[in-house]
């Protein structure tokens, strides 16, 4: 079968769901991954043909796309902060706004003159995207990462190997962690960063079907009546486990900026700042331990 004929089938079946440009881009990614065909060849509609075996994963991917499965789960990987990350149904697909959170932290720790390592803890690490990007870009540093999901941690460990960095991955529940049983007893950090679950159930209506049906709800949702549940627990933890002048960084729900400022100030943080993402939405908060 000619690649250009298969491309037509993708457009016929998917354009109504995703739009022509996005389908074009999916098709590129899939033929590159499964058939090692260059983007240029696909774009130019050359007379390249593919075998029956090569067609098989492409038709499977077409069916998955029809069922709203995100392309990142179909390919099993994505790019974040210029680095490759494996993802599966146990890990949230890293988002561009989280790259902005990583940038905020990286900007706060420009290349170190001293040999002292910046100690960093990422809470709710998922695929490991924040922890691994920071380990790669803040040098020297020592990075730990916590998640309650053993399956997410398994994927995050593989991503650390893939990116050739060392991260100390820890299994634990930030909501029930007490000072006594904590893996972090008597340990303090320069940086605590987190992108915890923050979508209220009432906001489900605003979400796309492919997110709702495929991404792990453990990573996304909080109850309507306690949307700051994770932020309160993490801020309390940070009061105990940040060094003096250590910094706390959060990705936040765009609707809860003022509440987040209040939370950090109530817990004694100084220089609390609310930051907007690329779209101008309140998306990050940082504060310094007083
Ligand atoms: C919004 S996702 C963020 C994942 C990743 N850091 C990112 O930015 O793409 C939240 C993460 O918190 C984890 N999580 C949920 N409840 C938790 C808990 N009680 N303790 C620790 N981690 C938790 C989820 O498994 C998920 O990986």
Automatic annotation (TrEMBL):
Top-tier EC class: transferase
Residue span(s) of domain Release factor glutamine methyltransferase N-terminal: 29-76
Domain Methyltransferase small per the UniProt entry, residue ranges: 112-204
Entry annotated with the keyword Transmembrane helix: no
GO MF: nucleic acid binding; peptide chain release factor N(5)-glutamine methyltransferase activity
Keyword S-adenosyl-L-methionine tagged: yes
Entry EC number(s): 2.1.1.297
Signal peptide interval: none
InterPro entries hit by this protein: DNA_methylase_N6_adenine_CS, HemK-like, N5-glutamine_MTase, PrmC_N, RF_methyltr_PrmC, SAM-dependent_MTases_sf, Small_mtfrase_dom
Keyword terms, alphabetized: Methyltransferase, S-adenosyl-L-methionine, Transferase
GO biological process: methylation
Catalytic activity of the protein: L-glutaminyl-[peptide chain release factor] + S-adenosyl-L-methionine = N(5)-methyl-L-glutaminyl-[peptide chain release factor] + S-adenosyl-L-homocysteine + H(+)
Name of the protein in question: peptide chain release factor N(5)-glutamine methyltransferase
Species for this entry: Olleya namhaensis
């Amino acid at each position: 079968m000619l690649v250009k004929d298969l491309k037509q089938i993708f457009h016929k079946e998917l354009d109504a769901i995703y739009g022509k440009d996005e389908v074009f881009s999916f098709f590129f990614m899939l033929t590159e991954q499964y058939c090692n065909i260059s983007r240029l060849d696909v774009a130019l509609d050359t007379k390249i043909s593919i075998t029956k075996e090569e067609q098989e994963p492409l038709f499977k991917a077409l069916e998955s796309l029809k069922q709203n499965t995100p392309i990142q789960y179909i390919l099993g990987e994505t790019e974040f902060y210029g680095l490759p990350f494996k993802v599966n149904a146990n890990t949230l697909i890293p988002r561009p706004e989280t790259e902005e959170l990583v940038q905020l932290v990286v900007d706060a720790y420009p290349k170190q003159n001293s040999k002292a390592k910046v100690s960093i803890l990422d809470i709710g690490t998922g695929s490991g995207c924040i922890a691994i990007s920071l380990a790669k870009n803040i040098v020297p540093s020592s990075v730990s990462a916590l998640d309650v999901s053993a399956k997410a941690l398994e994927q995050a460990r593989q991503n650390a190997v893939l990116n050739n960095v060392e991260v100390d991955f820890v299994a634990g529940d930030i909501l029930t962690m007490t000072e006594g049983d904590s893996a972090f007893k008597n340990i303090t950090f320069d940086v605590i960063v987190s992108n915890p679950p923050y979508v209220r159930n009432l906001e489900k209506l605003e979400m796309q079907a492919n997110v709702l049906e495929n991404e792990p709800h453990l990573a996304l949702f909080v109850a309507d009546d306690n949307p700051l549940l994770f932020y309160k627990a993490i801020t309390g933890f940070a009061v105990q486990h940040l060094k003096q002048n250590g910094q706390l960084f959060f990705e936040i729900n765009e609707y809860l900026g003022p509440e987040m400022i209040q939370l950090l100030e109530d817990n004694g943080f100084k220089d609390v700042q609310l930051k907007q993402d690329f779209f101008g939405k309140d998306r990050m908060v940082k504060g310094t331990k007083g």
